[in-house]
Specification:
Elements: H1 7-20, H2 25-34, H3 39-51, H4 57-72, H5 76-85, H6 90-98, H7 102-119, H8 125-138, H9 143-159
Protein name: Regulatory protein RecX
Domain RecX second three-helical: 56-97
Domain RecX third three-helical: 105-148
Length: 160
Amino acid sequence: MPQQLTWEKALQKMKHFCAYRERSHYEVKEKLYALGLHKPEVEKMLSLLIEDNYLNETRYATLFAGGHFRQKKWGRKKIEFELKQQKISSFNIKKALAVIDETEYRQTLQQLALKKWQTLRGQQPINKMAKTQAYLVQKGYEPGLVHQQIQWLKQQTTVS
């Protein structure tokens, strides 16, 4: 490692790092260790960043959940898994998932299912069902909701 960063330079670097976009505590900790800081320094810097509102786990989790649902169309299970990977507390995960509107969630699931179903033209109904279900579960939607959606799609295609 080149030269050791001074405390002030490391703090400025981390403030910039956190101001650029929301970060989890885990992400910041990893960055601090990568900069060569030791545990007592890391803990002190984390405290300062939290105090100065550069770091806020609830805000991070809420923005992550809302953003990944709206932008990437992820389901709750995938969002929850990713937040757990960032070592977010169960309390904040629950709070973040509550931000997702239930009606919007089900509409998104329906749109994704319909779009996938339509891309599988010419396939046997059983294959369409299996592939659509696998796709939706992989996107992080709950198996029970996915099953309901597949049943709805099946009814729609037998009616038309």
